[in-house]
């Protein structure tokens, strides 16, 4: 077995049939546990849905669950999550007013040639498109004022395939109307702020400078909240 990096022939890539017709985040989390909207569910341990305040002012969107998130069933519980929580504190963002999730809800990986170590594999556009109905539902239900895109995959999921994190990070980008069904926050003008994924900070040769950049980008998001009437 090589992990869930390969596609299943004839498999439909769309989570829409698995979404509940009504209900809040709890109902969607329960429904997501049974999602088979793409082949990634076959090898992943479980669906990893978003977590946090249902009335969060800030939503943070990452790429996909990692190994620890897949095992524990919660987003951002590994080393990258610890770094993200520290950065949020340093940026003066109330963690209790955040909601964290991923563009893709199942861990995509390949198995190491030797041993059982699971190696992260970036989700494809097809994976992101299949899982987008879950992210749309979270955006609609939480209705955040600012969405922080953590890394290139999250940025492309929110802003389209032309997004480049190196070019667009650290600025307030108006949330595209076509990017998802939004609620009251969108009516008042909501924004996306892009930055690096915390895991990229951990891999950086100059971790101190990379971390400072992450905090700086998060402060842009915090400033947008401060400016709200």
Give a brief outline of the structure:
The chain has 229 residues and is α/β, with parallel strands linked by helices.
Report on the structure:
- This protein is α/β, with parallel strands linked by helices.
- 38% of the residues lie in helices and 13% in strands.
- It is built from nine helices and eight strands.
- The protein has helices spanning 25-32, 67-72, 79-90, 125-142, 152-159, 165-168, 184-188, 198-203, 207-226, and strands at residues 51-52, 58-62, 98-102, 109-111, 118-120, 146-150, 173-174, 191-195.
- The strands form two sheets. It has a six-stranded mixed beta sheet, sandwiched between helices. Strands 4-5 form a two-stranded antiparallel ribbon.
- β4 and β5 form a beta hairpin.
- The longest helix is centred in the last third of the chain and has 20 residues, at 207-226.
- The protein is globular, with a radius of gyration of 17 Å.
- The chain starts with 24 loop residues before the first helix and ends with a helix.
């Amino acid at each position: 077995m090589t992990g869930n990096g390969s596609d299943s022939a004839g498999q439909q890539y769309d989570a829409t049939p698995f979404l509940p017709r009504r209900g809040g985040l709890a109902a969607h989390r329960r429904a997501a546990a049974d999602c088979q909207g793409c082949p990634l569910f076959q090898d992943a341990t479980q669906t990893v849905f978003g977590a946090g305040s249902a009335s969060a002012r800030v939503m943070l969107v990452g790429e996909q669950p990692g190994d620890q998130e897949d095992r524990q069933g919660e987003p951002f519980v590994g080393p990258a999550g610890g770094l993200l929580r520290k950065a949020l504190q340093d940026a003066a963002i109330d963690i209790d007013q955040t909601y964290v999730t991923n563009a893709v809800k199942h861990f995509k990986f390949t198995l190491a040639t030797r041993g059982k170590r699971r190696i992260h594999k970036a989700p494809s556009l097809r994976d992101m498109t299949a899982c987008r109905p879950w992210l749309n539902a979270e955006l609609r239900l939480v209705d955040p004022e600012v969405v922080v895109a953590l890394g290139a995959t999250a940025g492309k999921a929110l802003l389209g395939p032309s997004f480049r994190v190196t070019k667009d990070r650290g600025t307030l980008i108006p949330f595209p109307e076509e990017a998802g069904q939004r609620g009251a926050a969108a009516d008042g003008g909501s924004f996306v702020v892009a930055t690096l994924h915390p895991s990229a900070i951990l891999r950086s040769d100059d971790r101190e400078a990379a971390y400072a950049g992450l905090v700086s980008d998060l402060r842009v998001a915090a400033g947008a909240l401060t400016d709200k009437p």
